[in-house]
Amino acid sequence: MFPVKPPQSFQLPGRFIEGIDEDIIQTLEAPNTNHFLFITKTRLFVYQAKPFAPLACHERTNESVELFGYNFGIRDNLPFGSKIKGFFKDQFCDPVIVDRWYFYVMTRNNFLLVYELYTKTSENAVFKEYGIPLNLSSGGNLLQSVVDDDIDDEVLTVFSAKENHKVIQNGYTISKQKGFMQFMRNDDIAEEMPIRRTELRLNVVLKFDHLIIDVIGIIAHDKDQPEQTNQYLLVLFDHGLQILKLEDFKLIENKLIHVIGGMRLKHCAEQILVLTSDGAQQSVQHIIFGEQKIESHSLVSTEFAGAFKDSVVFDHLLIIAYEKYLIYYDVLDKIVISKQPTSFKISCISALSSDAMVLLAENNSIVFMSKWGNILLSMAVNQADFKILHSSIIDTKLLVSGTNGTLQLWNLWKKSESSLSNFRTNKVFTLINDNNDILLYSPMSDSTNTSAFQTIKLPTKTVNNNVTVCKTNGILTLMVVYVANKGILLINFLNSNKWISFDQVDIKGIEWLSDDYLLCHFTDDENEKESVKCYHFPSLRHDSTSLEDFKVWEWEVPNGQRLDNFFANTLSTYKALKFAEDSDEEGDNSSKKLFVTSEILMVLSNSRVVIFDALCSVHPTGVNLVQKFHQYKTFNFPENSLRGLKWIYRYKDGFIAWIKDELVIIGQQEDEQWRFQVAYDRLEQILEKSEDSLVIVSGNEVLLCDFAHVWAVDDPLISTPVIEEEYPISISLDTATFHNISCISTQKLTKLSISHSVYLDKIVDRNLALGVDGNKIDEKYRDLKHYKFSLEKILSNKVLEHENLDSILALIDTYDRNSGDVVTEVGKLEIIGNCLRKIETEHWDYLFENLNLTPRDLITKCISLSEAKILGTMLMVFLNYDDGGIEANAEVPPKTPSQKKKKKKSNKKNKNQNTNTNTKDPSPDTSVFNILKDETVIGQVLKIFVSTAILSTTKEQAQEYWDFALQLIRFLRALDSKGDTTLAQTCLDLI
């Protein structure tokens, strides 16, 4: 998501053939083998990704270059477990045959160079030894049947010449311990991550008679007979898509599907797509293999979006990068769902994770971007001799390549999916990296003063940990961490930073229930059973090392069904279920009352949802003790309707669910059929769920609504745009502030920081627009920290737009009245003074007219109240006011930086309506010029400043009021540069 530190730079060894351009024109990731591959015009390099190390290189001769042409692209086989509708039946893709992996290099003279990568590295070894997640298109259920245990005899080994025994294994001494005990040791142990032997060979050269545009390789195995292998090549030419069936790369069968203007082949949602262009229109072609035809769908006009650049796949979503736009195409629904303009020209795009991507810009910038186009970080590469060309990523390693054989390797933070379970507490934002760092951020009560992450270290020195789960409970007292590749479950007691650990556990999913109950989803492949177990961790206990000792409940998935996912929602309000009969015994009887405090929703593979209620006794201290798990009800939904489900909550007589990228209402109709209705699309994340409020990032906006708004598909309470490079990660409802994360990255330093933005003004303004009574608004929001600032912000915006001010001025009066200031109007004066300071002088008269007050009235009120702070604010803004009364040649002192205000554009219509606003003759009552000439008024102002400065309790406060007085005198001297009055001297004498 963000870089951990500045990148490491590497340089390829130089070429010996003069005049050859050695730019790295394309990189390719092979996560299942822990390899990066990249090509220049004449060479193919293989590097191990983790740890980063060169392994192999194939350098072509002059004769090869002359005959076959330069390299211009490299392609891979489809990922393990991939499916293609209509292409073959009962088969799955596996790009490896025994110990050989195939890659395809395209050349300019229409040749295809097929390379073999010989290695003992398997998906299983990469996952367990290096901590790199498996790249499996169909999940992990195929892995057991096709992957054997890896043998450890193909690694770098050094033997002792005298004693003939191993001294170094993989570059490390072999005397260190291995296994689970090492994980909990605190001594400094280097982790052994083998640098495996890899051999690169050119297997075969295939010649074609037409220009090669793109290639996809397919190696398929039969599910029942994995030893049987079918090889295919899909080769895209300008005139069509050629389907070649091969045996040992010898042609067996050849088919052609006519596609004109093809630019790129893509595999998405079990379909093969061809991106095409006819010059004026960009389109996508769905290949229907069974009928050997295409189904065409238009994307965008070339004039509108610019030239095609690149594309990337997110589940069912294909994002196509053009020169000026990102086009979002839903492959399943076959529609364009969004067109996102960019402020830069794109050259390359790669997926960072399931909800983030990285774009390379033609202005030599690297842009980290969320899935729906919100810019997280933009960095310019300020190296004159390095032009970035391409990028690839494996887990948290981003490789950026470019001109002159230069490589940059970035280590990235990875966002851990936070729990959406607790409606009573704030959601926690979590980041992890490969150095065992965990960063936690959650807003506290005074959230604007909380800008730091809580940093926690995993209790190990090993650096090959694949952390798939890292979740805290609601009250931030417990954190669970699951290291998947080592089968280790860790519980951290955050108050003391003590860890307890359990090994040899295989867990698919984890959720917190309430504050100290943990739900875990287990699979038993040998017995073909699945279960969800609940564990209770009420306090720090070291007396047991068995996870089963903490178990309080278990539910087995019914035979013949599979648990796709489960969700736990700890509710904001508890439902009283049962009350015990009154007892004559002494003591508190409340512990005998049972409440429904939480719900557990088990989502089965056949779109069936089984709901359990957690029945708890609630202690007066707020501790919930689960007495029973009650199976409430089972619901059956249409087949595949819950595919891509990320969260679900029972609401009224239906459900609110996050499915794919949409917030969906699921309600039952009169005919008892389920109705699915989209409330909000382009859903990027749920920031918060608290009581009846829901805060989401939808597209490029943050939306705040309640569940009633969602259920009625109504407009949200507020919507505010996502600020570029300040991405929202949390919200404080008690202070009405968003918490945004940003990253500062230089050549020497990378730092994460938190900023805050207030949204209360939007809520208040929405209530005013709806005609809500001012007393109700004031009663509900006046105690919030930023309420007065919000009133000031609303007033300023309405003045700038010359909107009606009646409602906001009435609300300001209500604020003063409820503060006990019916006569004095202190709050109103402060808000008006700050408003004047923020808007240009051309808008002042519009405010004065609506207030039915003059500048003299405002100054006089401040004097009568002896409000030095407000008076100082008023006076400073009036000193910058020029209504034509101040002489043109007056030597007015320059404005200080704090006094300079950025000029805002006003509505053209309103400007025309108020053309003469600043040209009318100043009157003695309204002219600021005349007020500043009034010796009586100025004398009173100065006395207040001086007396307040003398009575100030701090040096800083006194200095502020002395500055007010001196600035006033300096202005008066400049105003009366000819010495026509004695006003300035009188003021000096007063001081």
UniProtKB/TrEMBL annotation:
Pfam families: RIC1. Residues 776-982 form the RIC1 C-terminal alpha solenoid region domain. One of its GO terms (cellular component) is Golgi membrane. Its main location: membrane. GO terms for biological process: intracellular protein transport; retrograde transport, endosome to Golgi. It is found in: Membrane. Residues 898-911 have a biased composition (Basic residues). Keywords: Membrane. It comes from the Eukaryota. Residues 889-926 are annotated as: Disordered. The keyword Membrane applies. This is WGS project CCBQ000000000 data, contig 00107. It comes from Kluyveromyces dobzhanskii CBS 2104.
